[in-house]
Amino acid sequence: MRASELRVILRGRDFRRLYATRLTSQLTDGVFQVALAGWVFFSPERQASAGKAAAAFAITLLPYSALGPFAGVFIDRWQRRQILVWAPILRALMVLGVAALVASGGDGAVFFLGVLLVLGVNRFFLAALSAALPHVVRREHLVTANAFAVTSGTIIAFIGAGAGYLLRQVFGAGHDGTALILVCAAGLFLLAGLIATTLPRLLLGPHLEQAAEQTREALGNVLHGLADGARHIRDRPSAALALGAISFHRFVYGVILIMTLLLCRNHFTTDADEGLTKFAIMLGVSGAGYFAAALITPLVVRRISKQAWIAGLLAGGAVSLLLLGMPFTEPFWAAGAFALGVVSQGVKLCVDTILQESIDDAYRGRVFAVYDMLFNATFAAAAAAAATWLPADGVSYPTLALIVVAYALGAAAYRAASARVTRPRSPIPS
Hints:
Layout: H1 3-10, H2 13-40, H3 50-75, H4 80-103, H5 109-132, H6 142-171, H7 175-196, H8 212-234, H9 237-266, H10 272-301, H11 306-325, H12 330-358, H13 364-386, H14 397-422
Helix pairs in contact: 2-4, 2-6, 2-7, 3-5, 3-8, 3-13, 4-5, 4-7, 6-7, 8-13, 9-10, 9-12, 9-13, 9-14, 10-12, 11-12, 11-14
């Protein structure tokens, strides 16, 4: 990212306004999510359970798996500046409703429905930000502007999470304290909408006539497109196997993540605040594994095939959990979290590349929409499945043993199947 190009981008008044809208909203996302995690899992007034963990993961991922493919249809039909103004306002009102539920001690179906709506609206907001960027930045600066905005948005979300944690220390971890944190989040969402009003109304497009019939036709095209993408994958065995591998891994990884949350809340400590800190550390260690995988995967796949590396990573998952998971002690589990971070990101990088190489360009958008849905839906399914048998403290030797065996068998099955697909055919005798 060149500093001179970035200076040119930042001199743009409308870019700065759009960027400020993004930063304010994503800062608030961090505050909101920490408040929710603290209330559902790490409140001293309630006990975390696998069922609550499953519900939380499901509502977090549902907007991305179910709404993701359709968001673009409406972003191309509604004024994007209006989405950026009204989506934060709508989220603020919803967050105040969630705060009222928390203040009354509620965490049932209505509470989770409210959270689902808040996250669902955010899916449209983020899509509108991406679609609006070309209207405030010159074409030759788009790559730099996008990298800068998205990366700093992610960083500011982590800062927001830290701010939410500090507010938790000030207001307390109970229902009144959590409700106050949510009220602060609602105020910040309103601020994001207010900043968006400084953008000219028609600046961000789309520049077309509004037509309900066009929207209905576009929605139908999304469904047909997903079906076309699935058929295209079916005719490309290497792509189908890669999607099978990532779906399998995401399911198993989802079970492990719920175990980690329960261990941090109810096994490694019984103190709620300390449990939240331990879970944050586990996520940070896993993130370090993601970073390590990004460094080593390109070096490895220059020497062996991507298919061989995927199989090796899945086998590595089995070995690391067998050696580091079985003691169910905090230091060993943290080391296992790092190893699974390497596995998770390494597999994803290889799968992304296999799809990019094996899918025709005309189908890539539709195939990656299918990929995105599978990536999130299998994770949510794992949470739902694990909730039916995991104990409250997360310690389950049979579950861990089953995961170890599953990783080992998955590695062997993928290696054998990919070898058959990539094996060169014998020449036909003349």
